[in-house]
Write a structure and sequence with these properties.
Blueprint lengths: L14 H17 L3 H7 L4 H10 L17 H13 L7 H15 L2 H13 L4 E4 L15 E5 L2 E12 L6 E7 L9 E7 L5 E6 L10 E12 L3 E2 L6 H37 L1 E2 L2 E2 L4 H29 L5 H25 L10 H9 L9 H10 L6
Parallel strand pairs: 1-4
Antiparallel strand pairs: 2-3, 3-7, 4-5, 5-8, 6-7, 9-10
The protein binds flavin-adenine dinucleotide.
């Protein structure tokens, strides 16, 4: 595609190009040949995490003193892009790297950081974050899971659902009420190692798309963890911590959507040049050229906006409504792009063995997780000025 080199790729020492080579080689060698197995098993191989840890692909933007790569959010985006380039949506690494590890880095005590981050960087520990419950998702303040203090322990009870990395996770950042009488002010984040008695996993869920990514139900039945597993200096900070970290999560989704649009474009360009009808390549019809022109434009516009957001985020200046716009726009346009590209594949576009069919199904969830499109519109509309 008439590509644009993202300005954030240009660092003084050019290290991001080297990192992209590393990520590309890993995705080509360790992921691409195994995609079908991940999908059949509804999860990646456990040792993919260890292999990634060995080559330095975990905890990319965590400081080296905690075992991380010492990189920036740009490194996270590159890995997302390279995963997308091989058509992978199975490996929940962006959640482990860009979300779970950052909760521990931002709010963990020195002891918590030293205990968990090096293990997350090596792949010994896989991370998950459990907010959503069977009865509540968007309305996070209404979670029912409780973490009630008894002496030096929290006793955690409740159920979570739709949890990414749920089946393989060793550590779950758990959203729970330490004070069930309160709404937002009663929420805390508690680290729950999955080896703790009383913790169990339910089904690995059968999804419309992203079929190789383990998305599971979790259950907490009198799970006792030390009070030192609280994230943050005091109880009741969980909701604010979530609000502070959700922008990065949403930017991860938006960046993945841009990469997916470019993937759909590349896959479809290849297909329409190969496939023939009425004695000519599908590309020979004006409709095809026009649709591909639309797709290329959508991808290019989305990349420009997301690049701007990435640069703002790297500078610590990305605000919540702007990232909500990026997540809203990119997730909805990516679905439109995948749909146009699927149509150009004809019947093959509806076959799961074709990458475009998978992309179409995989992308649908982007309008739902990390805050639905409707919640993004709520956030954006609240930021609009009243007429003077
Ligand atoms: C594949 C997958 C992976 C996921 N991974 C994780 C994970 O790792 N951790 C985690 O905690 N969660 C995860 N989730 C859960 C996800 O974040 C929630 O599904 C999402 O936040 C929506 O919550 P809900 O499903 O309860 O829908 P609901 O909140 O019940 O929403 C239903 C509908 O009502 C609309 N709605 C709700 N409130 C409003 C409002 N105020 N105004 C207008 N419309 C509204 C919604 O937009 C939606 O259209 C995942 C979900 C999926 C599908």
């Amino acid at each position: 595609m008439p590509g644009r080199r993202s300005p954030w790729m240009d660092t003084p020492d050019g290290d991001l190009d080297d990192f992209r080579d590393l990520a590309r080689t890993f995705c080509e060698k360790e992921i691409k040949p195994n995609l079908e197995r991940y999908i059949a098993n509804k999860q990646v191989d456990r040792d993919l995490w260890n292999k990634a840890g060995e080559v330095g692909l975990l905890c990319l933007s965590i400081p080296e003193e905690y075992g991380g790569g010492g990189g920036t959010f740009a490194h996270e985006v590159i890995l997302i892009e390279e995963q997308s380039r091989v058509g992978d949506t199975s490996w929940g690494v962006s959640l482990h790297n860009g979300i779970v590890a950052h909760y521990i880095l931002a709010y963990g005590t020195e002891e918590q950081k030293r205990e968990w981050l090096p293990k997350m960087a090596s792949g010994e520990v896989v991370g998950a974050i459990a907010m959503t419950e069977p009865g509540t998702g968007s309305d996070l303040q209404s979670v029912k899971t409780k973490a009630i203090r008894e002496g030096d322990e929290y006793v955690v009870n409740g159920s979570k659902t739709f949890i990414t990395n749920g089946a393989l996770a060793d550590l779950v950042v758990t959203v729970a009420k330490t004070n069930p009488e309160e709404q937002a002010a009663g929420i805390s984040l508690v680290l729950v190692p999955t080896a703790t008695p009383g913790f169990s996993r339910g089904r690995v869920l059968d999804k419309v798309g992203m079929k190789g990514q383990d998305t599971a139900e979790l259950s907490f039945d009198d799970v006792r963890v030390p009070v030192s597993n609280l994230l943050g200096t005091e109880e009741g900070q969980g909701f604010v911590q979530l609000m502070q970290q959700l922008p990065q999560e949403r930017l991860i989704v938006a960046a993945g959507n841009v990469a997916a649009m470019e993937y759909c474009l590349d896959e479809t360009l290849r297909y329409v040049h190969d496939r023939h009808a009425f004695g000519r390549p599908i590309w020979g019809f004006q409709n095809t050229k026009f649709k591909m022109a639309e797709v290329a434009t959508e991808a290019r516009v989305a990349r420009s906006f997301v690049d701007e957001c990435i640069e703002l985020h790297l500078a610590g200046k990305l605000d919540i409504p702007t990232v909500a716009m990026a997540k809203l726009w990119c997730s909805e346009r990516a679905q439109k792009v995948a749909d146009m590209c699927l149509q150009l594949h004809g019947g093959y576009g509806y076959m799961n063995e074709y990458p475009i069919a998978r992309a179409w199904a995989d992308l649908r969830v982007s309008q739902i997780y990390a805050g639905t499109s409707e919640i993004m519109k709520e956030i954006i509309s609240r930021s609009l000025p009243a007429p003077s």
